[in-house]
Design brief:
Blueprint: H1 2-23, E1 46-51, E2 81-84, H2 92-97, H3 100-107, E3 113-117, E4 145-148, E5 154-157, H4 160-173, E6 177-181, H5 197-210, E7 213-215, H6 217-228, H7 230-234, H8 246-261
Parallel strand pairs: 1-2, 1-3, 3-6, 6-7
Antiparallel strand pairs: 4-5
Helix pairs in contact: 4-5, 6-8
Length: 300
Amino acid sequence: MNLRLTTLAIFFAVAGGFLQAAEDERPVVDASKVAVEKMADNGLPTFHIVGDSTVKSGGSGAGLWGWGERIKPFFDTNRINVVNHAIGGRSARTYFNEGRWQKVVDAIKPGDFVIIQFGHNDQGRIGDPAMKGRADGKGTGDETVEDTKPDGTTELVHTFGWYMAKFVTDAKAKGATVILCSPIPHKQHWETERDFANIAQWDAEVARLHGALYFDLTMVITDAYKKAGMDKVETFFADKGTHTTDSGAQFNAACVIAGLKSLKDNPVGKYFSDKSREIEPYKASGPINSTNPPAAPAHP
């Protein structure tokens, strides 16, 4: 009997460890350990970057890097600031609720650009403890769900599209050009299937309805991965299939530039560095909806 109880105890301990490991594949990064980036020159326009750990890893020391941490060399920083506001473990919902989005809004000035990528932490069931309060509602509508937190407080949770639309309208009101992009694909979901189909659809719909630019970064990277091949892509990931290595982050940053170049009139193009010249615009299989004209520059 004691042996059986001991065996069961070991089983549940191990199983609990696996569950905890699975839950922690998308950890919520401690904000106190992430340096806040500032504009180098307040007199220049700024390219603001908003997103999760696939955009900015937070310098965990585990060899994880986001594309936003490797995109600056593609810009002429004598003409534009590049500021990465992304932080690991956040969804559109928690980025908004923690007040992080308001800090971005406060920093935006006319002539700026804001690129936003969420989706990795937004899916799942509202109220599931494993989601750590990050799951949004599905779709782009105004419907809400009341979520009771572990401390007994309640939160009115909006749809993914509601949060994205809020980001768009707030940034445009400050005179910025807003660009939405779908998430980078997982390592397991690019070779034979399309990743983040729903998120991409909702991003595109928000962009169309609220006047933002949009490109499908999931497919920009997916197509580039197919050209690079599985062996090469394996070196781009630092974990089971979500976060990228330094080389993976650099590769994905180049894909972001290809996506930006594919936008109508290439509004960010005049701020690119020589490093960007070799990158061809992404050729999408269908038209890219873009109803947000470039914001008027703050300076000639």
